[in-house]
Design brief:
about 190 residues; alpha+beta; Cytidine Deaminase, domain 2; 2 domains; two-stranded parallel sheet; 5 helices; about 30% helix; globular
Length: about 190
């Protein structure tokens, strides 16, 4: 969770109720760190001028990694150049002399989701597929040899998250804790 303003006690209480791996904020008000620290294995990061991060997003950096054999890998960061609908191009393809294209233009919400998804994709490893809906990633598949496999993984994760959400909203428990087969079938 990244906050763009100081973390106060009320926000810290809400954060402490959720599973988080990282909390980042420009400042932590008195008492908020103690509340957040209740969570095990939580990393807390203070970035004083977090408002300036956007000033650097178009700059590349070099990432160096040491190998066990003494070698070094140097990798240049990606820069996301997709910022608006104007940066997107319609999908077209030519096969056996015939041109194929989408039957309709995406809605404004679909365009927003594509731009959001493209930004998220920059932080995911190669051979990955994301499913995005209403400004949220609903499934991410990565790490397989082929994109069909990662698309299936992302799809399966999206369905598991949805089943968890329905189950939690209706019964207050995670789907994998649900033992009633009839209720499992209804949610599925």
């Amino acid at each position: 969770m990244v906050l763009n303003r100081p973390c106060d006690r009320e926000t810290a209480e809400l954060l402490a109720e959720n599973y988080l791996e990282v909390v980042c904020a420009p400042e932590f008000e008195e008492g908020s760190l103690e509340i957040i620290s209740r969570r095990a294995n939580l990393r807390v990061i203070k970035v004083a001028r977090i408002d300036r991060l956007a000033d650097f997003e178009r700059y590349r950096f070099i990432d160096f990694k040491s190998l066990i054999d003494g070698g070094i890998i140097a990798q240049q960061s990606a820069v996301n150049l997709i910022r608006s609908a104007a940066d997107l191009k319609p999908a077209t393809a030519v096969w056996k002399g015939r041109e194929y294209r989408c039957d309709r233009e995406p809605s404004s919400q679909e365009l927003d989701d594509m731009i959001f998804g493209w930004a998220i994709e920059h932080g995911v490893t190669s051979n990955s597929v994301l499913y995005v809906k209403d400004g949220c990633t609903v499934g991410i598949g990565t790490g397989e040899q082929d994109r069909v496999g990662v698309a299936e993984i992302a799809r399966d994760k999206a369905y598991r998250k949805l089943a968890d959400r329905y189950c939690f909203e209706e019964l207050g428990i995670a789907f994998n804790e649900l033992e009633d087969e009839a209720k499992q079938n209804a949610i599925e």
